[in-house]
Amino acid sequence: MNPWFAHRRRRNLAESSENRMRVGVPVHSLFKQFVNIEYDPEKNQTVFSGFVIAVFDEMMRQLKQPFEYIPFNGSYDELMIQIPLKKFDAVAGDVAIRSSRLDYLDFTQPYTESGLEMVVPVKSKLSNQPWLFMKPFTAKMWWLIATITVYTGFIIWLIERAHCEYLRGSIVNQVGIIIWLAFTTLFTLRGDKLHSNLSRMVVVVWLFVALIITQSYTASFTSMLTAQRLEPTITRVEVLRNMNATVGYCNGSLVHHYLKDVLGFNSFKVKSYNSTHRYAEALNSGEIAAIFLEVPAAKVFLAQYCKSFIRTGETFKVGGYGFAFPRKYTLLSEVNKALTNVSESGKLKELEDAYLTSEKCVDEKSSPNEDESLSPRGFSILFELTGGTSTVALAIYIITSIREFKKSNPEPKNFFKLMSSFIKNEMRRSSRVVNAEST
């Protein structure tokens, strides 16, 4: 059963009396979630339901005022006129508060959010980006990965070059080997080709970190490809006017005048529609570039078409929905107090959730999924682990190498001369070129 049929209240028109308030209800409400009228032939009753009816019922229950609903088969403006004509005492419907109506009516305070919203089709933000493969990580993350990778390759080269002649040679050759070692360690342990326990320790820790990084990248990139990121096709009214685009609005509402007089659209570029299905068809076919709906109606429409359309973020201030009463109605303050009690008690939010936001989405398109790019913050411990391990291995290697060099050069030297001789010896070792024919 649809949510707007919950909390039904039945009114038998044959039970009306002089003390019973006559409340007009529009028959042709665009959104059945707001007002829905059905006839029950078995019980000979007219059933009134919907969000507006539920709110009005709750308000009148607090006032302890007897009333009856009377369906009206006409336009909204014609319905409003029935109050000064003394045919109705009030009107309960998805009726917007407008300045022109305040000349002959009084309204309660709005019981919905006030405003006019622009709804447009969505488009993917990622599908045409050539650098999409870089999106899973932030720029800082990429720089940190590159730095740690090259640093790890340098440590392995420095430690292993004493054991592997192919790691020596010209400067260009050694730079190429460092880069090659750096990136091959991302995908293989290479334990059988490593001679030092220090380099094995560095590679094991780095491979563990690299495995987590590559798996995180794969998961994030897959998510971006399978769950498209969406954004509005048009974001501002000025763009619509410059395009000379056609826009739509809800049939029977006063939005038409607002679009012409305030937002500056030409009359022949404004079309009215009488169903949510027609809204969706017109937007998808390109018949209109955008549709303007009051906030409550936009909520219902976007609940039904949650994956195809989106709000642009702009809200234009207009009056919300209110209940209409005769001009200078003496009990209006009591009515507003009752309506405030409905809101403050949480009942209004409960009814809104039940009738307006629980609508089932009928779209088949992919839903938006705005996952942020991964930053170094989530991997800081891992980077500290691999960087620290490499640094410790480097320190151990340097200390051990200096001791061995000192043993082979027993002449007493001060610290600076010792270090200078050690560095020169290391550079000579790195610059030896192996004769390929002799191997």
Secondary structure: elements and pairs:
Blueprint: E1 9-11, E2 21-26, E3 36-40, E4 45-49, H1 51-63, E5 67-72, H2 76-81, E6 90-91, E7 105-107, E8 116-124, H3 139-160, H4 171-184, H5 197-226, E9 230-232, H6 237-243, E10 247-250, H7 255-261, E11 270-273, H8 276-285, E12 290-294, H9 295-304, E13 309-316, E14 324-326, H10 332-344, H11 347-355, H12 380-408, H13 415-431
Parallel strand pairs: 2-5, 2-6, 10-11, 10-12
Antiparallel strand pairs: 1-4, 3-4, 7-14, 8-9, 8-12, 8-13
Helix pairs in contact: 1-10, 1-11, 3-4, 3-5, 3-12, 5-12
Domain Ionotropic glutamate receptor C-terminal: 22-358
Keywords: Glycoprotein, Ion channel, Ion transport, Ligand-gated ion channel, Membrane, Receptor, Transmembrane, Transmembrane helix, Transport
Subcellular location: Membrane
Task: Describe, in plain words, how this protein is organized in 3D.
Keywords: Glycoprotein, Ion channel, Ion transport, Ligand-gated ion channel, Membrane, Receptor, Transmembrane, Transmembrane helix, Transport. It holds the Pfam family Lig_chan. GO terms for molecular function: ligand-gated monoatomic ion channel activity; signaling receptor activity. This is Ionotropic glutamate receptor, metazoa. InterPro entries: Ionotropic_Glu_rcpt (IPR015683), Iontro_rcpt_C (IPR001320). The chain is of the alpha/beta class and 439 residues long. It folds into 3 domains: 145 residues, 3-Layer(aba) Sandwich (D-Maltodextrin-Binding Protein, domain 2); 96 residues, Periplasmic binding protein-like II (D-Maltodextrin-Binding Protein, domain 2, 3-Layer(aba) Sandwich), CATH 3.40.190.10; 143 residues, no CATH class. The chain contains 13 helices and 14 strands. The strands form 4 sheets. Strands 8, 9, 10, 11, 12 and 13 form a 6-stranded mixed β-sheet that branches. Strands 1-4-3 form a 3-stranded antiparallel β-sheet. Helix 7 links the parallel strand 10 and strand 11.
